[in-house]
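Quick one:
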Amino acid sequence: MIDHVIFSPNLEQAITQIHAAPHRIVFECAGAGTLALWWLHRVAGSSRTVLEASDRYAAAAMIDLLGYEPASFVAIDTAVAMAQQAYQRAFYLVHQGNRVHQTDVPLLGIACTATLATDRTKRGQHRGVIAVQSADSSSTYALTLLRGERDRLHEELVISQLLLRALVVACGLTVDLPLDLLPGESVETDIHPITNLINDLIDRNIETLTILPDGQQVANQPFQGAILPGSFNPFHIGHRRLAETAAAFLQQPVAFELSVSHPDKGQLTAAEITRRMNHFRGRHTLILSHAAMYQDKAAQHPGCMIIVGYDTVTRIIAPHYYGSEAAMYASLDRIRANRCRFLVAGRTRDGHFYTLDDAAIPPAFHDLFIGLSQNDFRIDLSSTDLRQLDTN
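Output:
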């Protein structure tokens, strides 16, 4: 009976069609989903579908994948981040890892993170989140299971069914794949297309892309206010508090600003851009551009206040970052010509709180910098601590 339930004719039909599709996948799971991987391998042809699969069971393994410790290991944001990393890994394996350069292979990053019944009492919900990342969309499927109604095997069964259903949808297949849900259980589905505007930005057909809190995207829209640049990988409470403080101090709106390219680190993929955008959805305005240097940011946002931290200021006034003192002065002159200035937040380091007063600003450029006092803004947490705090 249980063998029939675990691998039904519907499953075999679905997986046969998945293997016949051109899609190649990298699969990341944590807490559940390995049954789905077994199903894929049980049907001949999985080598045409599965590029790589990893089971991130230890917290350290998840942190290694994401590059940070998520606020919650079983959450939509975490699943999306896992799928983004899986997609980038698939891109590497197909486009760089292989001797044959394949350019027309549709890729998918599939992720599953879940907390299920175990041999100890759990206080929280039993739930799972599936995320699928493709070149043009990011999809999530969240399911909360009724506690005490299934053993671990049958909870794993339902989560793996959901994972396979998500894969069927991502491959554009129409095969019916039912879920063994109980009354009162339902799947929350969310699909976010990666619009052509992001590709237009990547291809440099537009200079800036502004994403409003409601998700609306506008190309080349001037912004009236201050900008807070960063990589936001991830976006954390320190960023949010600094933006709130700056908005109150300046009495003007603040937008976050992310450069999608870096002279040393290269260009972000559309999938990675979308992952970082998700941190701001429903809460903040984000401006995307290729302006990696502050002089370029000033040219894009003339008359704008640029919000930075003390550590950034020490680099802005360090000649070796420019190659020469003359190049540094030329950069600061261009920032001044665009009527931009810097609002500087302090930073705790080695037990001392450093502010703008501690920075050796060249006398000719004192007017470009305004400092926040520690009474205005002070967070005595390391970058690692800030990343671990929930920003919701």
